[in-house]
Amino acid sequence: MKRSNGNILLTLGALLLGACASAPQQEAPALQLKLDGQMAAQPQAPLPGVNSDFTLGGGDGLLLYRAGYRVQPGQLFVSGTRNFDAPSQQVAMQTLGQNADLRLSEVAGAPLLVGMSQEAHSEWSLAGEAQNLRQAVSIGWAPPLAAFNLKWANTTAPAAPLDCAVEGSMRMPLPAETAALRLRGRSCRVVATDATVTDMEARTWSAALEWGEEKQRSQLRLQAIDPAPSAGTALADPAAGYELGLAQQQELGSWSTQARLAWQRVPDAQNPAVSQGWTSEASLQRRLGGVGVSAGVSSGVNPAWFLPEAAERSDQLNLGLDLSRWAGGLLPGRSPQTGLYYSRTRSVGSEQTLSDDLLQWKFSLLW
User: What is the residue range of the signal peptide feature (predicted)?
Assistant: First the structure.
């Protein structure tokens, strides 16, 4: 399959501009309760919903507890659905989530941080009710030498392409200022694009070098993904896939850029055309008074690239016009979120090429 040289050149140009910004953390209040309604953003629903949040603790205390509840109408009430042959039967959705962060006694100069979270999501349709549950437990420890984190997660609705039950990471500062080394390992299940769990498991390892100032940061990462058949299956054991990528993010006044360029390789003697290739992504955002404009391109993207039989890749163009700040001047105190967005996706598989155009108008309003 031919790659888009123009997209790769654009990505390389954006990579030369620089890198990553992180938002400053804000201390949570000792007690906070919020209840509001909202106009849910398309394509979820155009009708009012309900949000509520509860926060207890915060700062340097022993416990920080947060809980939230959300209800919003489903796709059944959305007009102008793109698939007229199979209209949605989704009536409403409900989400109840809670998480607790515990600060334990210090070990070797740093406290142990334990986090626990749970989220239950219910979806009501004309055919009945479906429920999904996600639970996670994490342990963090950050002595002067390095920061360690270990996480266990479980969900009944895994997202493609990997559902990782165990994840461990270590971040070590380097002698050079603003530079750090990050190591990461995960144990996962392979998930198909339709969110069904396959008969494959995967172990992943990665090492990343990060550097740069607060608003200009870069990352060079080497990643290996080793898929393997689950016990008791007769599937062939594919070789490990490798990815070497460079990512950068930068903020310069009203300008913001993001770029990523990666080389991916999956040994596959039967189909060398898809065993390796380049993937690139680049985006540019600009704030012009009360209006924000954005543009992005990607080439050769395939979330399941580490599987030899997953040959499909896609190229995408995204354009956006964010009118939220302008609308906020018309509706002070309401914090509206609105804009117009266009995307064009070209998917290239082993047998055919498909193109899809999508134009969306999004609007949400809290009160």
Answer: 1-23
Taking 50 as the pLDDT cut, the residues of the chain under it are 1-5, 8-10, 12, 15-29, 35-47, 79-86, 269
Contacts of the segment 73-81: beta carbons below 8 A, 24+ positions apart = 73/40, 73/45, 73/47, 73/49, 74/44, 74/45, 74/123, 74/124, 74/125, 75/43, 75/44, 75/45, 76/125, 76/126, 77/45, 77/46, 77/47, 78/42, 78/43, 78/44, 78/45, 78/46, 79/46
Q: What is the pLDDT of residue 117?
A: 94
Name which of 222, 250, 245, 237 is nearest 300 in CA terms. 245
Closest CA to 208 of 162, 251, 163, 243: 243
Angle 259-265-268 from CA coordinates, rounded to 5°: 150
Cis check for the bond before 267: say yes or no (omega within 30 of 0).
Answer: no
H helix intervals, 226-307: none
Within its chain, how far is the Cα of 341 from the centroid?
19
What's this model's pTM, rounded to 2 decimal places?
A: 0.72
Name the residue ranges covered by the structural domains of the chain.
1-19+158-162+175-367, 42-78+88-154
Residue among 14, 6, 3, 4 at smallest CA distance from 256: 14
Report the pLDDT value the prediction gives residue 351, as an integer from 0 to 100: 60
Cα separation, 330 vs 248, in Å, equals 36
